Amino acid sequence: MAEARGGESPLRLLVSTKDMTELFGTTSVSTISNWRARHADFPTAVIGGHNAQFDINDVLAWARRPDTPARLVTTQTAEWWWAKTIDAIRLVADIDTEREGADPLRSYLAALVLVHATLVADGTGLSTRRRRWTAIVSSPIPDHELASVAADLERTASLAGLLTEPLAHVRMPAPVVHDILTR
What we know:
4 strands, about 5% strand, elongated
């Protein structure tokens, strides 16, 4: 499981050389390979090998410097960033693969969104619900707090079966849950 280093996010969004061609609008991965070979300050791969992966923050920082040949010419879509985020979460999640049906990670994230929406939505008991959300975010063991809140919401908000079951099939390190909840 990933550990946060010195205040860094425990989630690392990674990009391949192919992803970089999209970010920089280059025509081929060989352009990226040439930059890697010619520029000693090119970001170091987080995962080496044939399909090397780079921390996107390092790549973007390098590209934004005026002394590099890379230029960010494309703004990626929300779907592109969502896919990168899901990949980052998948690397650190302990997912119950025995579950039948829907993708457990997708169901887990949907349950998190539903818990958040239910707790911060306008309506009766708003201050109490916001305090519950704050308790989840600040808890040292947020998954336990989430499970408790999910069970309460299923009983009181007509959300039977939509929260506790999906949340039970994915286990994440507490720093990752905090990172997801506070983004």
